[in-house]
C-alpha cells in the first residue's frame, strides 16, 4: 500500500470567499468563518489528492447582519435545516506545467448535489521557520445558484434583477502537512469537528 499524507487547513492563513453581483453594478463579497477539510495525498502530489471539504452554512459573513440573516433564511441557504455545505473532489486535469489544474467534484447545498469544476493554482510546498511543512493553493470557480434552488430575487424598474444568478468562488488556502498522521490506503481518515476562526 502507498503511504498517504494528511493535510489540514491553516485557518489563520486561509479564506473561503465568494462574490455576487448586486444591482448589476457592484459586487457583494462574503466568506465563511467556520470550515474544515480532510485532504489526503500520495506523498506531496496534490494531483492524487482526495478532498472532503465542508463549511458551516450559518457562519456566512457578508459584513451586513441584516443581509446575512436573509441569506441564512429559507430564501437562500435555509441553515436551520441544512447545516453544512459540502464539496467532495477527486478528479483532476492538468492545465499546464506551472501548477494550474482543474478540479472536478460534487458540491452539495441544501441537500442538492451538482458536479462542478474549480480552477486551481498550486503555489508549491515550503517549510516555515518553525519547521512546519505547508502548501499553498488558490481556487476560483463560478456556479449558478439556481442549480441549488437558491432562487430568491427581486426585479428592478430598469428591467434587471437585484442579485445575479452567478456566484464567483474565490479561496486562498494554506495547508499544514501532518507527518504524524500518515495513513495507508486501507486506513480510515477521521474527519475532525468544525473549527471556528
Automatic annotation (TrEMBL):
Q: Which Gene3D superfamilies match?
A: Lipid/polyisoprenoid-binding, YceI-like
Q: Which Pfam families match?
A: YceI (PF04264)
> Which InterPro entries does its entry note?
Lipid/polyisoprenoid-bd_YceI (IPR007372), TTHA0802/YceI-like_sf (IPR036761)
Per the record, the domain of life is Bacteria
Q: Which positions fall inside the Lipid/polyisoprenoid-binding YceI-like domain?
A: 6-176
* Name this polypeptide is given: Polyisoprenoid-binding protein
Q: Which source organism?
A: Candidatus Opimibacter skivensis
Amino acid at each position: 500500500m502507498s503511504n498517504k499524507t494528511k493535510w489540514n487547513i491553516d485557518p489563520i492563513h486561509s479564506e473561503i470567499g465568494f462574490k455576487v453581483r448586486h444591482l448589476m453594478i457592484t459586487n457583494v463579497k462574503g466568506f465563511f468563518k467556520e470550515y474544515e477539510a480532510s485532504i489526503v495525498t500520495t506523498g506531496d502530489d496534490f494531483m492524487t489528492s482526495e478532498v472532503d471539504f465542508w463549511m458551516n452554512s450559518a457562519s456566512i459573513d457578508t459584513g451586513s447582519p441584516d443581509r446575512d440573516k436573509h441569506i441564512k433564511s429559507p430564501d437562500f441557504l435555509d441553515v436551520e435545516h441544512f447545516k453544512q455545505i459540502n464539496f467532495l473532489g477527486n478528479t483532476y486535469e492538468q492545465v499546464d506545467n506551472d501548477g494550474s489544474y482543474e478540479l472536478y467534484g460534487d458540491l452539495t447545498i441544501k441537500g442538492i448535489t451538482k458536479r462542478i469544476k474549480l480552477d486551481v493554482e498550486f503555489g508549491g510546498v515550503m517549510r516555515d521557520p518553525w519547521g512546519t511543512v505547508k502548501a499553498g493553493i488558490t481556487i476560483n470557480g463560478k456556479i449558478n445558484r439556481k442549480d441549488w434552488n437558491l432562487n430568491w430575487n427581486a426585479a428592478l424598474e430598469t428591467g434587471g434583477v437585484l442579485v445575479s444568478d452567478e456566484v464567483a468562488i474565490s479561496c486562498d488556502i494554506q495547508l499544514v502537512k501532518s507527518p504524524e498522521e500518515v495513513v495507508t490506503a486501507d486506513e480510515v481518515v477521521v474527519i475532525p469537528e468544525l473549527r471556528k476562526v
